[in-house]
Amino acid sequence: MNEPATDRVGVSKLETLFSESGWFFREQFVKDYGIDAQVEIVENNKPTGQLIAIQIKSGDSYFSESDENTITYRPDAKHVEYWLRHDLPVIVTLFDPTEDKFYWTPVSRNTIEKTKKAYKIVIPKSSVLNSENFSLLKRVYKLDVPAYRLKRLLLDLEWMNLVASEERVYAEFEDWVNKSLSRTSVKIFCDSATGYKELVIPQHYWAGHTSFDILSRFIPWADYEMDEDDYEEYIRGRYEEECYGGYDKEDETTYYTESFDDWYEHNRYEFESPDKIVPVSQNGEVDTYRVILKLNDLGKSFLMIADYLYDDKSFEYRSFSVEELV
User: Fold this and answer.
1) Are 257 and 130 contained in the same domain?
2) What is the mean pLDDT of residues 300-306?
């Protein structure tokens, strides 16, 4: 068995390797579950949100079954089951302190072999992990689109329930009017009966899409409408800005070049668009929008599915064996 100090050297060196390349390494401090750390893929200095779980083993003993071309690693059966059930892709890394090298392989049904008594993973010695071949790790993260969408809906379930309970849930986002590449961050918030809640989705870029397209991509379970108070405040502000005629100090009266009704009649086609969505603030570069979320058909249907998913009375639980998973 390896000394704790040897294990720490492997973890520390792997953290340094990822950190020097700009990837985000997070050590897991809950031991004996088969995952020692997570690393987040970074592209163009931007975190992608794509995480890989890592089992890190260090020391000469892990290389006792090796030849010129391969290293045989024999994991615990409980770890194999845990890895195959894991939501994240998992890799195993073996640190050779003599050669100061990391060898690695993805964990999957294809790389785990069943033996008479347990399991083994054969790692090619050509699979050396270093800063020059991190691109290989990106291939490990294979996005399962249906599973990803389901997880996103489950994560947003609290917001759907707030909307369904007639709480006023807002989404606020930006439109960079002078940029050819659409970019926006999205903030969802609600001052509910149980307290203020907020979720901020960091800024994303999408060529050929409007900020409204991006909003629909992030919140596919809702339609949206303008807050009437915000709508009226915006229109009144536009009128006062465009038609301001001066202020008479003696009369303490503000004069306008045109009445509000006449001005609105001239501009009604802009304000009475089908979406009736206007910015709540503008500064020449960025238009900021704030809308109220309303459940669409997807949101309403998913709430019905969630009722089924979380109704344990109608679900018969059973355990799967490792053999069934491999």
Assistant:
1) no
2) 95
Please state, in angstroms and rounded to a whole number, the distance separating the CA atoms of residues 224 and 222: 6
This prediction's pTM: 0.51
CA distance 207 to 192: 35
- Pair 48, 172 in one domain: no
Q: Please say whether the beta carbons of 226 and 276 come within 8 A.
A: yes
Cβ atoms of 35 and 90 closer than 8 Å: yes
Average pLDDT of the residues in 40-45: 85
| Last residue in a domain, options 118, 142, 166 | 142
Per-residue burial over 104-138, b = 16 or more CB atoms within 10 Å of its CB, e = otherwise: bbbbbeeebeeeeeebbbebebebebeeeebeebe
Max CA pair span of the chain: 99
163, 169 Cβ separation under 8 angstroms: yes
For residues 322 and 81, what is the distance between their CA atoms, to the nearest angstrom?
5
Residue 323 lies in a domain: no
Based on the structure, what is the number of domains in the chain?
2
pLDDT computed for residue 32 by the predictor: 56
- Stretch among 78-92, 124-138, 259-273 having the lowest mean pLDDT: 259-273
Q: Is there a contact between 44 and 126 (Cβ–Cβ < 8 Å)?
A: no
CA distance 242 to 63: 77
pLDDT in tens, 191-228: 988 889 988 776 555 555 677 777 888 899 999 888 77
Q: Are residues 167 and 286 in the same domain?
A: yes
Q: Which of 102, 117, 142 delimits the end of a domain?
A: 142
Q: 229 and 135, same structural domain?
A: no
Q: Is residue 135 part of a domain?
A: yes
Domain that holds residue 264: 147-312
